[in-house]
Amino acid sequence: MISRRGVLGAGAALAAAQAQTGGKTIAVASSNGLRACARAVEIMKQGGDTLDAVVAGVNIQEDDPEDDSVGYGGLPNEEGVVELDASLMHGPTRRAGSVASLRGIRYPSKIAKLVMEQTDHVMLVGEGALRFAKAYGFREENLLTEKSRLAWMVWKRSLRDASGHNNWTDGVDAPPAEKAVAELKRAFPDVSEELLAYAWDRAMYPPTGTINCLGLNAKGEISGVTTTSGLAWKIPGRVGDSPIIGAGVFVDPDVGAAGSTGRGEENIRIAGAHTVVENMRHGMSPQEACLDAMKRISKNYGNDRKRMEKFDINFYALRKDGAYAGASLWSGTRRPGQTPPRRKFTVNDGGQSRYEDCAFLYER
Ligand code: GLY
């Protein structure tokens, strides 16, 4: 039986936590997280658990064939197979779960949650993760959409050996090189130029999109999740940062949560999400914490901007008092000849989800 003193104690603890967050419910996510943040806040406001909320949020992107960096419709590995990674942490219980190189299941975040809840492991990979998902009734399906398959085919056609040859194009007797989209139109006459331009862009600039979503409720409870199809055209079996606890996501309920999107290899080398949370523990603001992590990445390249031009990376932080930030290595995205749009992240603190500008280390 709970004593009157115990009830008062719990009430006092809740009041203290609400004072810390200002009673606010907040979700913070990567730039593809407008809907995820809205869903997460809706669930948390209805009293749902913070991890249930952020997972339900990112499930929207996992389901969306138009997001080619996450779940169904994600861009595949070099063999044309979609391989998914995800990890999550539940602040209230301080537990974690993760899956990597999971094929054929569109909700890696749900499987990571099952690993956390139903096993005494933290991480399952590849065939074992697939069998585990199927054991829990998940349906195996082909995650490659026609759009992603086209982008993969175009990527294969873009590969050349030293003499400029490619087995996937129509050979040495083909007419002289034409402009990329015009040449592709000849190979794929039924595909629109708009879709071919998309496929060419993806072939040339393999994305490391990903979604990270962090959620804090009015009681001060906090959780986070990251889910991705990883680097497009990767070697089969390549695992990025997203399923690595401490890189793709990290939550310490005494401090806050952090996550990352972008080129995972850079993040793994600095254990980014953990670094951001530790920085906040030692008194940095969320923005300072993210930018300090970014400086560590830059240091790994001797602060040589030229060498870092080829990749993007972003951190997101949500402190347990509700302060938050997003930060990027570069002010804008990498597209030659175009003015890069300013890097954004998404926030919802009760109304409509909105974009906010990422802080950045370098102007581009
Ligand atoms: N951040 C996603 C990846 O590199 O796989």
Overall description:
- This protein has 364 residues and is of the alpha+beta class.
- It is globular.
- The longest helix is centred in the N-terminal third of the chain and has 18 residues, at 4-21.
- The chain has twelve helices and 13 strands.
- Glycine (GLY) is lined by residues 208, 210, 228, 230-231, 240-242, 261-264.
Task: Reconstruct the topology from this structure.
Layout: H1 4-21, E1 26-29, H2 34-45, H3 50-63, E2 83-90, E3 95-103, H4 108-118, E4 123-125, H5 126-135, H6 146-158, H7 180-187, H8 193-204, E5 211-216, E6 222-228, E7 249-252, E8 256-262, H9 264-268, H10 272-281, H11 286-299, H12 305-308, E9 313-319, E10 324-330, E11 344-348, E12 354-357, E13 359-362
Parallel strand pairs: 3-4, 10-13
Antiparallel strand pairs: 1-5, 1-11, 2-3, 2-6, 5-6, 7-8, 8-9, 9-10, 11-12
Helix pairs in contact: 2-3, 3-4, 6-8, 7-8, 10-11
The protein binds glycine.
Short recap of the structure:
This protein is an alpha+beta fold. The chain has helices at residues 4-21, 34-45, 50-63, 108-118, 126-135, 146-158, 180-187, 193-204, 264-268, 272-281, 286-299, 305-308; strands at residues 26-29, 83-90, 95-103, 123-125, 211-216, 222-228, 249-252, 256-262, 313-319, 324-330, 344-348, 354-357, 359-362.
The ligands found in this model are: glycine
The number of helical elements comes to 12
What order do the SSEs take from the amino end to the carboxyl end, as H and E? HEHHEEHEHHHHEEEEHHHHEEEEE
Shape: globular
Instruction: Characterize the largest beta sheet: strand count, sense, and whether it forms a barrel.
Output: 8 strands, mixed
Overall average residue pLDDT: 90
Helix and strand content put the structural class at alpha+beta
C-alpha termini separation: 61 Å
Q: How are strands sequenced across the largest beta sheet?
A: 4-3-2-6-5-1-11-12
- Weakly predicted, low-confidence segments: 1-8
Count of distinct strands: 13
The amount of beta strand, in percent, is 15-25%
Helix-residue proportion: 25-40%
Rg over alpha carbons? 21 Å
